[in-house]
Amino acid sequence: MSILTHDFEQQVSQALADARRQLLAKLQQASQVHERRLHAKLTNEPESDWVALLSEHLGPEYKDLIIRLERLEATQCQFDLGLFGFCSDCEEPIEPHRLEQDVTTQRCARCDSISRAQLNGHK
Fold it and tell me: Would residue 85 be called left, alpha or beta, if left means φ above 0 and alpha means ψ between -120 and 50 degrees?
């Protein structure tokens, strides 16, 4: 593992822990009873089940936090599988500057451009 990859892995691990803490704090301080109950449930569930539970039980006000958590978990899985830094479409290495901007980046610049063009074409 290169030093740069190790730095990215530490960054993801820290960001994932921070996102989980932020989420738990937000749920614990929530005014809605179902959110506080979900907080209690999450503390007894494996972290790998959190995204599914959150998506099922929370509204759009949590959308950005859930998406961030999901992206960080996907990136952590890529590290575990030895696939971090490779494009999910063409499997070529992702440009380092793209990973430095967002460590959860899933595509190289070329494939990202193609994907965005396809999305814009379907709107």
Answer: left
Rounded Cα–Cα distance for residues 3 and 9 (Å): 10
The tens digit of pLDDT for each residue in 2-35 reads 656 778 999 999 999 999 999 999 999 999 999 9
d(CA 31, CA 88): 40
81-87: long-range pairs with CB below 8 Å, 24+ = 84/5, 84/8, 84/9, 85/5, 85/8, 87/111
Do 27 and 39 contact (CB within 8 A), yes or no?
Answer: yes
Q: Sign of dihedral through CA atoms 109, 74, 55, 64?
A: negative
| 122 has pLDDT over 70 | no
DSSP annotation of 60 reads G
Residue at 2: amino acid letter: S
Q: Do 6 and 13 contact (CB within 8 A), yes or no? A: no
